[in-house]
Amino acid sequence: MDLGVALPSAGELATPANILRYAQEAERLGYASIWTYERVLRPIAPVAQPGGGPPQALPDFYRTVYDPLETLSYLAAVTTRITLGTSIVDALLHPPVVLARRFATLDQLSGGRVVAGLGQGWMREEFQTANVPFRRMGAGFDEVVGAIRATWGPDPVRYEGRFYRITPSEVNPKPVQSRLPILVGAMTPAGIERAARIADGLNPIAFSAEMLVGAGARFRGAARAAGRDPDTLTVVARANVSITSRPVDRDRQFLGGSPDQIADDLAKLRGNGVDHVFLANMTATDIDEEIDLLGRIRTATAGLDVGVD
Description:
Elements: E1 2-6, H1 16-29, E2 33-36, H2 68-76, E3 83-86, E4 89-90, H3 96-110, E5 114-119, H4 124-130, H5 139-152, E6 157-160, E7 165-169, E8 182-184, H6 189-198, E9 201-202, H7 209-225, E10 234-241, H8 259-269, E11 276-281, H9 287-300
Parallel strand pairs: 1-2, 1-11, 2-3, 3-5, 4-5, 5-8, 8-9, 9-10, 10-11
Antiparallel strand pairs: 6-7
């Protein structure tokens, strides 16, 4: 199982110097991957939440969110091995051919180290800002992925769908990787089944070991039912947690707490269909402490054989 970390690309630690330092230290320590994500804007008013419930104000750390692909392009020039992933880019907010070219360019600049984590998005205000109908979710997302795959394929590129069309054209550069992997961020049964049909992997949030293992099993089962080989697909879990220097005694999140507690949780996932986990410290406030925690987590997990692919 591989182990990665989310970059400090949002919130009060989001500065070029901190992002650079964190990425280089993660690579030096032997982490397999670094990840970032997209947030187009932070509305001032409360917003409707995914899954229902009363509107809420978005967290303060969304006040500053560095663009994911520009951030990873910056880091491609100062790293050599570590995988560069998005978790996630809201694909419906972008013209597919433009997004495909940006990922392909990053794959070229990094020497083939990119994982394209895509999602449908959930915030109506972002759809409005991008001038994309909210109802395009579902079938429109399938087409985005199809058009991206076509763009990465041989020229002349062509795509004809309900929502998107690419006239026969030369579209370059192509990715370095023969099949640049696409992960789909999904938690619902329908989303997991969609990922099993159109993606190379599933990118769920790790709320609990049971939920995560169950999502992975559903994903692989749906892939098998769709005529795909589940052994060629991957489950990459995102853990949005609080990482602490000292053990947490009460109300500890799965994959959160101290480095030793995180290592214990990772041990429970080995052999259970989870291929890759990356940790996102949602309470980070001090970059020196974050760098220290990176090293302590690697020490705590050394006996688990996690890290570099």
